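Weekly puzzle thread! Below is a chain. First person to post its structure in token form gets bragging rights.
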Amino acid sequence: MELKGVYTALVTPFKNDIFDEDAFKRLITLQIEGGVDGFVPCGSTGEASTLYYEEHKRVIELTVECAKKTVPVIAGTGSNSTKEAIELTAMAKEVGADMCLLTTPYYNKPTQEGLYRHYRKIAEEVDIPLILYNIPGRTGINMTPETVKKLAEIPGIQGIKEASGSLVQIAEIYRLTQGKFTILSGDDNLFLPMMSVGAVGIISVLSNMLPTKMKALYKTFFIDRDIIKARDIHAGLMPLFQGIFIETNPIPVKEALYYMGIIEEEFRLPLCTMSEANKTVLKGLLKEHGLLKRE
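Winning reply:
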């Protein structure tokens, strides 16, 4: 399966501390109408770290049901335990996910050799395409381009979501893998520059709110090759790129979706609602873009 375009890192809506399936369906309908190329449930944006196993399974299962095989589902199944990552990946395959996204193990800070063995073991144990996920700001460990090159040689490992924030690192991955390994942006605000050095798509937070705009940015640069127009779209979105990270992701994007009338304003501790000052900033941005539906 060729991975290109815009994949939404779906939030997980809650209502009374229970997975809100109705709100989730509304969100997915918005994504389908916006023309996204795929869904990524149970990632950082989906609060996977506080989902119970059965919730994790149900979120992926419902995403598959709603996608109806029209677009791929890339399920988040990462863990700091290799054994648990294997179990989650096998579960995702069982309920119909097309691929799995696996973050670098967090907290235990493995060496580069440990990272290599972690991903190799998962690829050996579960027959499903895998996407690496490098986000050192969350996990405390950076996967080097050299390690990515070695992993790219393993059958079943098909790409990487890169959120190191380094364009040099993206360019080096592209060079070392000779442009044959899929690179997806993990940073909304760097999507445009990342496409210029090797990325072919994005796993996006902002597309929860503006799937059509994110798809337009991708199409204008990558398909139409209109760099000037793409730059203008990027510049217009920059205040929102910054606004949805004014506090820890996914707090701002979930608040925004609440003000857009799509989900409830509910988080699972230790995440909590935004400060009143930041809410004022966010609501101002939503109003500017015609997205504010309720105060």
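Puzzle host: Confirmed. Bonus trivia for everyone else. The longest helix spans residues 227-243.
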